[in-house]
Design goal:
Blueprint (H helix, E strand, L loop, with lengths): L2 H27 L2 H22 L11 H22 L1 H4 L1 H26 L4 H27 L4 H23 L17 H87 L1 H29 L6 H15 L6 E8 L6 H22 L3 E9 L2 E8 L14 H11 L3 E6 L5 E8 H4 L1
Parallel strand pairs: 1-2
Antiparallel strand pairs: 2-3, 3-5, 4-5
């Protein structure tokens, strides 16, 4: 076997192995880029065979219909490969539209030159048609290539390098035709054949394109990993939200049972008793009706508080502090003690899942100061900034020692509310007299 044949056999083997690898990759991954890449390699290799078989010294480009058809098909596959490898449709829609026009030009050229071949048109017209279409495609490529290079993607460098190697091989092969005395197709010297340089350029191109596809696959894998991490994070966030919802449901159930259950049961029992008292003791029946009315109003008030604490429209800090002020003033409306407010928020919303516990702690503290302190002044300080919640209620009354035994569930409920907020509740003296109670909690700790 002569040197030229051995080199061609080696280079052809490399190209066909890459085509086979691409086909197997397609059957494994079902991505169109692989079979299109294989068709491109086969078309280019067959074109080399046809070029090599044409030994005419007066060869005119574009007169061999089979060569031009294979070239056009190869270019179409090349364009489709580039679109998918670089994701041109997403990254540069204008270039994508130009490439579609180039594909239509190549398809139109194949059809038109097929008609010229069928009608036996002379070689000059065939060559002219070939030149017009090829120069049109080349002009469009000159617009697209700089735009692709501006994308600055790592995979673009492989694509451009491979394309330049192929173009360089074609240019060398073109120059070879003008030096027949040197490049005289000597079988013992493979570099006297113009096809050798074109094939070397394609081999370099194929290697670069393969590296580019490997890089693209790696990027796709990393993107899948990022998407999976985002999904996992979203699932965790959803799980936390579900836990919050379950906690809210449990809180509502507890509030309905503890605060409304007994009152509603009382209304039911008193109403039955009232029915008998209407005939036996009308005066007592009237008192029972008043008791029913007071209990019903209490139930309505508790229901309003529950609905308010859950309504998303009340998330703003301003609405929350307005609610604190309204509740405090309502409690102290007929009491000589004065209520003083100091609110400091940064506009950050108060989450609904902690709003009710905060509100109930506040209500219990101002209610205790009203009932037990005998104070002339009660001071309320509420701060909500930098994800830190600070609530302080202090008075100038007779004081309170939390270390002493106390009856009632007020202090127990306060501690439970503080624990549910993951906060710290401190009860101490306000100077020489009075009581100071503070609640501090972190928003992140609670969430």
């Amino acid at each position: 076997m002569q040197s030229y044949e051995r080199l061609r056999f080696f280079l052809d083997g490399m190209l066909y192995m890459m085509a086979l690898f691409s086909l197997l990759s397609y059957f494994q991954q079902r991505k169109a880029i692989y079979w299109q890449y294989a068709v491109y390699i086969v078309c280019i290799t067959l074109t080399f065979y046809l070029d090599d078989a044409d030994t005419s010294s007066e060869y005119i480009p574009g007169t061999n219909y089979w060569i031009t058809s294979l070239e056009s098909l190869a270019f179409v596959m090349y364009i489709s490969f580039a679109v998918q490898l670089i994701r041109i449709q997403e990254n540069d829609p204008l270039s994508y539209r130009i490439l579609r026009v180039m594909t239509l030009l190549l398809a139109g050229e194949t059809i038109f030159e097929g008609l010229l071949f069928l009608f036996g048109t002379n070689d000059e017209i065939k060559s002219l048609s070939y030149a017009v279409f090829r120069f049109s495609v080349a002009g469009a490529a000159l617009v697209v290539v700089p735009r692709i290079m501006r994308l600055r993607q790592p995979v673009v460098s492989y694509f451009i390098t491979g394309s330049l190697l192929f173009v360089a091989g074609c240019l060398v092969a073109l120059v070879v035709n003008y030096f027949p005395s040197v490049f005289n197709r000597n079988p013992d010297n493979p570099f006297t054949f113009s096809v050798t340089f074109m094939q070397l350029g394609v081999v370099g191109e194929v290697l670069c394109f393969t590296l580019g596809m490997s890089l693209r696959n790696r990027q796709n894998e990393l993107e899948k990993i990022r998407v999976q991490e985002q999904l996992i994070a979203q699932l965790r966030e959803n799980d936390l939200k579900n836990q919050k919802l379950l906690r809210i449901r449990d809180d509502i159930a507890r509030d309905l049972h503890d605060e409304l259950g007994a009152d509603l049961a009382s209304i039911s029992m008193v109403s039955h008793a009232t029915a008998h008292q209407m005939t036996t003791d009308p005066a007592q029946a009237l008192q029972s009706l008043k008791q029913i009315g007071e209990t019903a109003r209490k139930v309505i008030q508790v229901m309003r508080e529950i609905v308010w604490s859950l309504h998303s429209a009340h998330d703003s800090a301003q609405q929350f502090t307005d609610r604190l002020r309204e509740t405090g003033l309502s409690l102290y409306e007929h009491h000589p003690a004065k209520l003083h407010f100091e609110f400091n928020t940064d506009g950050q919303p108060v989450p609904s899942h902690m709003r009710r516990d905060l509100y109930l702690v506040y209500k219990e503290l101002v209610h205790n100061a009203l009932r037990h302190s005998g104070a002339n002044n009660v001071y309320v300080q509420f701060q909500f900034s930098n994800a830190t919640v600070f609530l302080c209620v202090k008075d100038d009354g007779k004081g309170f020692d939390p270390a002493l035994p106390h009856t009632g569930n007020g202090l127990i409920n306060l501690k439970k509310r503080a624990e549910s907020l993951n906060g710290q509740l401190c009860i101490g003296k306000n100077g020489n007299t009075g009581t100071s109670t503070t609640l501090t909690c972190q928003l992140q700790a609670y969430s």
